[in-house]
Amino acid sequence: MSKAIIHTDAAPAAVGPYSQAVSAPAGKLVFLSGQIGLEPGTGELVSENFEGQVRQSFANMQAVIEAAGGTLNDIVKLTLFLTDLSKFASANAIMAEIIPQPYPARSTIGVASLPKGAQFEVEAILAL
Ligand SMILES: C=C(N)C(=O)O
């Protein structure tokens, strides 16, 4: 899939590792459910640690992407949910390590709570 990044100086620059917009040719879209930091084997949170949960969430997301026949390059939109937005910079740093450029579009939302007491959830849309 060849995605194109859309950027304009008439809108604010990204405040994290994301693009203002991404366009993708008409094709197959895959909508992923949100992933939290559960270990696939146990179904329990990998850690009480925010960074550990973020990394496990992205690993879970990547496993589903690969099961759909895609790669991280096929992500066109991510949504991040954090129970503590003071961890925004940490989430950005981990995401920038994992997600290849050009970055997908993204929304980040602070929420009161997440299932299983998780601190982080990531949801993705792919264009294959
Ligand atoms: C401001 C955003 N769109 C973000 O951090 O995802």
TrEMBL record:
<protein>
    <submittedName>
        <fullName>Rid family detoxifying hydrolase</fullName>
    </submittedName>
</protein>
<dbReference type="InterPro" id="IPR035959">
    <property type="entry name" value="RutC-like_sf"/>
</dbReference>
<dbReference type="Pfam" id="PF01042">
    <property type="entry name" value="Ribonuc_L-PSP"/>
</dbReference>
<keyword id="KW-0378">Hydrolase</keyword>
<dbReference type="InterPro" id="IPR006056">
    <property type="entry name" value="RidA"/>
</dbReference>
<comment type="similarity">
    <text>Belongs to the RutC family.</text>
</comment>
<dbReference type="GO" id="GO:0016787">
    <property type="term" value="F:hydrolase activity"/>
</dbReference>
<dbReference type="InterPro" id="IPR006175">
    <property type="entry name" value="YjgF/YER057c/UK114"/>
</dbReference>
